[in-house]
Amino acid sequence: MPSITRTSSDFEENRAKVESAVYDAVRSLLDGGMKYTEISVQKIISEAGIARSTFYAHFRDKSDLLARLGSSLNKRFFDEASSDAAEIWDAVASPDGLHSIARLLEGGIARHRKHFSVLSAISETAAYDAAVRNFYTSDLEAFETRVVRDLEQRRSNGMTDSHLDPVLAGRIIVWGGEQAIAHHIATEDQGRDAAFALELASMWWYGAYNRRITESR
User: On the chain, which terminus has fewer CB atoms closer than 10 Å, C or N?
Assistant: First the structure.
């Protein structure tokens, strides 16, 4: 009688190989200068060296593929920087956290550079594909919620300007920062990453978290 355990293991191994081949094919095509909208399933399977039936046995469509590729990147980001999330909140809570935030941002920019073609494809596709958009925005929305909560607490404790609008400031920090990082990577080489990270951290640090308190406005 065939081993069920071995059969299941073989299936998982084969699935992992197919997914890896498809992901590598997409990255190769994107790194070669193609936009995701220009990449057909035929191009993907030709680059990956698999049959069309094999592709559709593992992915519903191109949107499913892109969302799962993004999920894979999210896990890789977590593995590469598992302590960043905790560290950044520790940094903003300290009186001398500016350069700590800048260092963490610089590390994030480096990781974005490494996977920039795929991240750009996710951002591009999110503009018109609801499934990809929901995936793309979920992490940013969670980050925004945390920033807003922090700013509300700092304002209540008198640690920043009482006129600060935490919701608007949080939106600018998270969504504006995301767009600024993408534009920076697209237009500058990595030699300017440290300076960019420090400027972004300064706007976060002095513009919201430690804005000079005003008596009136």
Answer: N
Strand, helix or coil for residue 34: coil
Rounded CA separation 99/96 (Å): 7
Are the CB atoms for 117 and 111 separated by under 8 Å?
Answer: no
Helix axis angle, 98-114 to 116-126, nearest 10°: 90
Is the CB of residue 23 less than 8 Å from the CB of residue 69? yes
Q: What would the pLDDT profile of 158-196 be if each residue is shown by its tens digit?
A: 989 999 999 999 999 999 998 999 999 999 999 999 999
Q: How far apart are alpha carbons 140 and 37 in whole angstroms?
A: 24
Domain(s) labelled CATH 1.10.10.60 in the chain stretch across 1-59
**Cβ(99)–Cβ(34) under 8 Å?**
no
Q: Is the pTM of this model over 0.85?
A: no
Work out the angle at residue 189's Cα, subtended by the Cα atoms of residues 184 and 190, and round it to the nearest 5 degrees: 90
Q: Which CATH superfamily is domain 1-59 in?
A: Homeodomain-like (1.10.10.60)
